[in-house]
Amino acid sequence: MLIRYMQAKRYTIMSDQRDYSGMAALSICESLLLALNDHKILPESEIIGVLKDAANTHENATGPDTSAHKAAAALINRIISGGNSVRRPQ
C-alpha cells in the first residue's frame, strides 16, 4: 500500500514538474518572439509563420499520444489568434 502511494505521489510530482517546465518554456519562447519582433529581427508575418509551422507539426503528429499534440496545436492556434507573441497596437 505504501509503495503504491509513493509511486502515485512520485507520478504527481513528475507530472507537476512537466507542467511547470512547459509553462516556463512557453514563457521563454514567447519573450524571445516578442524581442525578435521588437528589435526588428523578425517581422510579425515571420513570427506568425513560425507559430503556424509549430501548430501544423503538432496537428500532423502520429503515434500513441496524438491527443497531447492536438492540445498543443490548439494552444498555439489560440496564441496566434490572441496575438500574445506579437505586440499589437491597442
Which secondary structure elements does this structure contain, and how are they paired or packed?
Elements: H1 2-38, H2 44-59, H3 66-82
Helix pairs in contact: 2-3
In short:
With 90 residues, the chain is mostly helical. 78% of the residues lie in helices and 0% in strands. It is built from 3 helices and no strands.
Description:
The chain has 90 residues and is mostly helical. The protein contains three helices and no strands. Helix 2 packs antiparallel against helix 3. The longest helix is centred in the first third of the chain and has 37 residues, at 2-38.
Domains (count): 1
Largest sheet: none
Which of globular, elongated, flat, extended, rod-shaped describes the shape?
A: globular
Q: How many strand elements?
A: 0
Helix fraction by DSSP (H/I, runs of at least 4): over 70%
| Low-confidence runs of at least 5 consecutive residues | none
Compute the separation of the termini in Å. 57 Å
Please indicate the percent range of residues in DSSP E strands (runs of 2 or more): under 5%
Tally of individual helices? 3
The structural class is: mainly alpha
**Which whole number gives the mean pLDDT?**
82
Radius of gyration: 17 Å
Q: Return the string of H and E elements.
A: HHH
- Oligomer category: single chain
